[in-house]
Amino acid sequence: MTLEQIAGIAHEPAGMATGAVVLTHGAGGSRESPLLVKICDEWAARGWLAIRYNLPYRRRRPKGPPSGSAASDQAGIVEAVEFARALTSGPVVAGGHSYGGRMTSMVVADETAKVDALTLFSYPLHPPGKPERARTEHLPRISVPTVFTHGTADPFGSIEELRSALALIPTATEIVEITGARHDLGSKSLDAPALAVDAALRLLA
């Protein structure tokens, strides 16, 4: 497996890497998402190798929503995690934004990929305006520490809904609240990438 095969871009730390982080994008996005770039820069600044990569549907076409099957996207996540695992003897953290984070959490819940922690950004608890369509059925099977970085104005789920969902996870979790942020986690006052990395390092410790 190579970086090209997972359509990945690596952010390398100054010295020997503590571990590796693999992150992927939301449904309409790509590895070029400004949020992913900032998060990977933050991990690299803390001494970790960080890789942002495209899901299989995005490798097939440059724009548009997920096409094909969730199973193929999940297989792409397994490849990325295995690639990262081969690069380090340290911990491996995986996750992503929205759809990418959800798919990653499903792979980890199914134990088809082994990671030491999950870091999920704007987890899409349900489609906007449709709280009855909860995307939480796999959460009780997550067995690794998980960070949820979430905007308080995210239409895909409120902080209260997220707290209820986290009660389903039988391991350590933390919510990083980004006040006033919507699904893109944009904030003029809070550094979401730095806060998310802080939380992940706390849970790994």
Automatic annotation (TrEMBL):
- Outline the extent of the KANL3/Tex30 alpha/beta hydrolase-like domain: 20-187
Per the record, the domain of life is Bacteria
**What Pfam families does the annotation carry?**
Abhydrolase_11
State the InterPro entries in the record.
AB_hydrolase_fold, KANL3/Tex30_Abhydrolase, NSL3/Tex30
User: What's the protein called, per UniProt?
Assistant: KANL3/Tex30 alpha/beta hydrolase-like domain-containing protein
